[in-house]
Fold this protein.
Amino acid sequence: MKVSEKIEELKQKEEKIREMGGEARVSKQHDKNKLSARERILFLFDEGTFREIDMFVKHRSTNFNMPQLEIPSDGVISGHGLVNGRPVFAYAQDFTSRGGSLGEKHAAKIVKVMDLAMKAGVPIVGMNDSGGARVEEGIDSLKGYGDIFFRNSRASGVIPQISVIMGPCAGGAVYSPAMTDFVFMVKKTAHMFITSPYVIKTVTGEDTTFEELGGAVVNNAKSGNAHFACESDEDAIENVKILLSYLPENNCDDAPVVPMGDDPQRLCPELDTIIPDNPKAAYDIRDVIHSVVDQGEFYEIHELFAQNAVIGLARLNNRTVGIIANQPLVLAGCLNIDSSDKIARFIRFCDAFNIPLITFVDVPGYLPGCDQEWSGVIRHGAKILWSYSEATVPKLTVTTRKSYGGAYIAMSSQHLGADMLFAWPSAQIAVMGAQGAVNIVTSYRKEIKEAADPKAKTEEKIKEYEDAFNTPYIAAERGYIDAVIQPSETRIRLIDALEALATKKESLPPKKHGNIPV
């Protein structure tokens, strides 16, 4: 065969494989408002930069009728390219090719790009759309999942790992996304659960649907298994690109510096009036965040889950920062089990990837209640203390209003290693609120009991306590707060502090690893 004929043969083979499961199956994907695996890959990468790996890989199963079965690329497309000019490895499961089922070689292809991403020190993006383990290949499929999980663990904290659920993801397959840093799901087409509605009906008698059990909104809002609920495949991939733009390529690099065109000396006069005069009135902490960060751009993460806390990425003076804040609009900003998990995991992600942490505090305490106590608020709440204490990146704290009791300690206090702490004049830093204090302090209780007008005396003592203790100045006198600042100066002070701490070096005691409460 001539060289030209061999080249033509190569082109024909490639063209055949690029057809995936065939025109009819690809059309079926489109009818469900889903892109094909190849369309997803090409949409992720900068035009003309994707380089496919292992296109010609085939399964080698001899069970059932498998020897006669052709599965293009063994049901998964893998390779590397550039996303906004930066290298990324990725794979996309192809539902049109045997339902994207995972067999031995399918898994080996995923494992190869994960290994290459680790060697190169660049992010990995996995697009999941699979019917699950390939039953015909038996235990080889389970081995494949185990190989992937092992690498998810090894890569954690070394390179960013992003999962995008764009179709079914069930049974053992769900554990890989759960071990990655961020999970995107597409509304109405993505489902993620361990046991299907059919199994649940058989075992427990419960009636449910795929969407009710494991849809994008459920996994974002109820379980917290996913971080983003997207409107379409295209929307999910665009959001992956945005997220990647904030992140470094690996744990030894810094996040990219992106010129934002926002004056680092810009004042935020709107913040001087954002705190309501009524201490019980709510306000949206996101208004504070948008005011302070570059161009008001805040990329919120886990928006639908544990909404009493807000986390996300932004830039200050062109550099990526992680934002953590209590949200007074929901549960008065109290900490609870879910918000503790949400905050702690984000702290550890940012710390792993050299992203400074900025914490906005307005917290009246941990949420009281039997359900919280019985469900383990102690061990879940302790995760925040653990994670802030463990983090060695620059840590800045701004107390806007309430900061009471154990929650004061937990929300990046100086005692957990925060580097610089600022408080607004409206800050109330104390063991508890005035209402609770007057009911506990013995001398107050005695005076109220003996007063001719107990109600008036109570109000008098509440004001007395607030004037004496619910201020930022006692903490400032002790050196627990570095500066009481005008709210309008918050952006300037945070940027100046970040610049001063840009060369911060801090080491933890030598150890294999800690034992975080779970």
About this structure: The domain at 269-433+471-500 is CATH 3.90.226.10 (2-enoyl-CoA Hydratase; Chain A, domain 1). The chain has three domains: 13-246, 269-433+471-500, 434-469. The longest strand covers residues 395-404.
